[in-house]
Amino acid sequence: MARFVTKHFGIVEFQPDTVIEFPSGLPGFEQETRFLPMEQPGTKPLLFLQSLDRPDLCFITLPVRVVDPDYRLAVSAEDLRLLELPEDRQPRIGTEVLCLTIISVAEERHPTANLLAPVVVNLRTRRAVQAIAPDSGYSHQHPLFRAHQEDSCSSFADAPGSRS
Questions:
Q1: What are phi and psi of 158, to 5 degrees?
Q2: For 91-126, how does the pLDDT look when each residue is reduced to its tens digit (9 = 90+)?
Q3: Domain covering 2-157 in this structure, CATH number
């Protein structure tokens, strides 16, 4: 069993065959090619992708279908080659690939999900890419929570027959 010290999770022990390999790294983090997927108690369905080369680098992700149950995956032929998957069709989420959306969390803003460029992991080989699909119609800042247009209590108070 291998060990790694992280900034956010302390000492982590893991099996080397659980590591996810990004042959080309991630956009903006091209040198980062090895990540450990980690679940933490009480945070399911969040999955943390912890870099094994930088103790301070960890991405918060969710399965893409948690954010959008009807999500349509669009992986380029080049990315399919990197993933070692057939190029003649899109892979099936859940059986052939794990498809994750990276979550952005910023102060004084609601969290967003990057549906434009999901992380796609070949479940058989554990090779991964961030599959950018510019013509997909998805956003890199898809809101995770919708602001309530009306407060439910005030809507009830304004309803006909209610007392103020």
A1: -85, -5
A2: 999 999 999 999 999 888 899 999 999 999 999 999
A3: 2.30.290.10
